[in-house]
Design goal:
This protein is α/β, with parallel strands linked by helices. The chain has three domains: 131 residues, Rossmann fold (3-Layer(aba) Sandwich), CATH 3.40.50.300; 63 residues, Helicase, Ruva Protein, domain 3 (Orthogonal Bundle); 123 residues, Zinc Finger, Delta Prime, domain 3, CATH 1.20.272.10. It is built from 17 helices and seven strands.
Length: 333
Amino acid sequence: MEFDNIIQNLRKKNYHPVYLLQGEEPYFIDIITDYIEKNVLSDVEKGFNLTVFYGKDSDARTIAESALRFPMMASQQIIIVKEAQSLNNIENLTFYAEKPMKSTILVLSYKYKTLDARKALVKAIKTNGVIFNSEKIYENKIPEWIEKYLAQKEYSISPQAAQILTSYLGNDLGKVANELEKLIIAVKETNKITPEHIEQNIGLSKEFNIYELQNALGAKNIYKANQIINYFGANQTVNPFQKTISNLYFYFLKLFTYHFMTDKSERNTIAELHVHPFIAKSYIAAAKNYSPTKLYEIFGILREYDMKSKGSDVSTMVDSADLQKEMIYKILH
């Protein structure tokens, strides 16, 4: 079942006896788990009918025995197993999942991995409950996710601002949501988040950020690229060298991939490179400025400075700000 459908059913009080929430993206698993924990029972009912187990400190038999109890002074009880991926012999819950109590809601929060679909436990939950597979969202989809998240709260964001957040936060939805909540508080009067708001409230410069550095390098704008890397050197806490190298590696990898695409249309570029439509044209233009041979050379440069950023083959007297300048110079020349 999809995330939106599960939340809608919970709001309508359409509950299932067993929920297996599994997968690499913990954000959606936490949202569903928290909703059930906070909203299904009243505060009075929770005292006797809400039990939270932790996988590493529990066993399947104890959990099943708790789930088989009848609720006290309530129509339902909730059993939540957090960190269920650490539960030994989780398959021992199969006998319960095959005949679950209708008055119990058992939630298995199984993060960062999935159970084997061939196992009897999974088949039993599929028959009698709900299985939700929480998958990581590609980074190119994060700006769209940000827009949707804000739209649900009647806020909006400029494309550039969404890209800046994505460049620094990646596809960690928990971090992204946390920063968005901070921004919502800060922009109540306008209801629209801009790069200026990000700069003022998060500390990410609207002009000197990894997104703008990639644009400057892509356009071979030497002056702008040097401005940005100088800013990075002076603000290394917000712009750590190794993170810059990592972001640039994936940026140039996309340009390298573009060269070997048969269909180089904008639409296919978006699909193949997993980039947001807002920036697809800039990737196509940038690829024309870097041949596959030059890009291969750049990968070597990035590897070299990744090692130097970790203290290998470089004097301890050399400042990382100077290393960053050297790296950008070699990339552009």
